[in-house]
Design a protein that fits this description.
The protein has 425 residues and is of the alpha/beta class. The chain is 33% helix and 16% strand. The strands form two sheets. A seven-stranded mixed sheet has the order 1-9-14-13-10-12-11, sandwiched between helices. Strands 4-5-3-6-7-2-8 form a seven-stranded parallel sheet, with helices on both faces.
Length: 425
Amino acid sequence: MLCAGRVLRQGLAPLAPGLRAWRRPFGKLVRPELAHALREMGALTPNEVQREALGVALSGDDLMACACTGSGKTFMFLVPFMQRLSEQMPAVPHPAAGGARPEALVLVPTHELALQVSSVAERLAAALPDPPAVACIAGEEGGPRADESARLLVATPTSLRRELREGGVRTDRVRMVAIDEADSICGAAAGDAEVADAPWAAARLGPDAAPQYVLTTATVSEADQAAIRRRFPHATRVSHRGVMPPSLRQQFHLLPRADKLGPLVQLLRQSDEDEWMRTGEAIVFCNETPLAAEVHAKAAAELTGMRPRLLTEETSQSQRVAAVEAVRAGECRLLVCTDIASRGLDFPGVRHVVSFDLPLDVASCARAPTFLCTSSTGAPWPRGRRARFGRYIHRAGRTARVGRPGVVSCLVQKHEIDLYRALYQ
């Protein structure tokens, strides 16, 4: 058992009903080429929430899908979009038109997630007889422009606005819009005027635009849900009751002293002695960049065999890409980061996630919004089904993905016990 200080509580997350495998394969829902590509990526049959979401999205209706981390939400918009693109001939380019004029648009909050989503899109597209071109614009200013032949474009909101302003992209042909991590892009924090004027708003997509919207997220507060429902009133809501991966084991370590760096090193060394843990990678989350840099320096000095990398908001784009690729390739076995890496990123080999300090929304839980999922009818689940603390949920979700086992460890000081107890329950 891992032990850096006394283990307060540990256990598996409850089974999420919507993640049980559905017996019918993807081939019963989508064209054979896409089903084959999904099998090549390890997705043999859809889980229940995927089946329900795909049924809505493939019909062309608006969708709001709330499902736990690692449940395959990316497929909920990419598969229907690729299916529709494969059934329609590409528009003939206008000789006087400059810039990319995509038919499908995917918005994600970070550069790293944009690269990941576009990679999945390219693999799905490559399986089709006439592969739709995929482009990604999520880099720094002055980076490569989207190919003018692109039919599906993946972008961050900032990059899309820049490209629209500079003429690199036009949205007059967009018929499908996906917004991943929707609570962070168009939730309550975004004002109505800001969303109404956003590049993906129907009013900005051409005079005759009636685009399909597919929104996905792992957590949604009551305020976010109200804002999304108001802004996308026709979206069918699909979700399951669980918010944590069902194969996740949670551990809470009570520290007798204020120092956390020593216990962290001890915890990671002990995990490296475990036969199963040492064959994968670990991620340590910190709230602030200076603290992450301090933890990385300590790890670099004392855990050299894990080849630690640092990933924060202040890390250069090239270093961020290199860090993510190194973790996925197994060249780096320890990633120290802020919450910039907590949303959406898929690291198949990560076995262990450590929350070095109290996530900010846990620390302010007395005034933090509660997170919930809704049924397909849109009715909220009973109050007892609510899951609080979105940052913790996203951090923990970097492991135990797609049914694989994983461990999340929290370093707990005495004054934090009640907060972490509430989090676990």
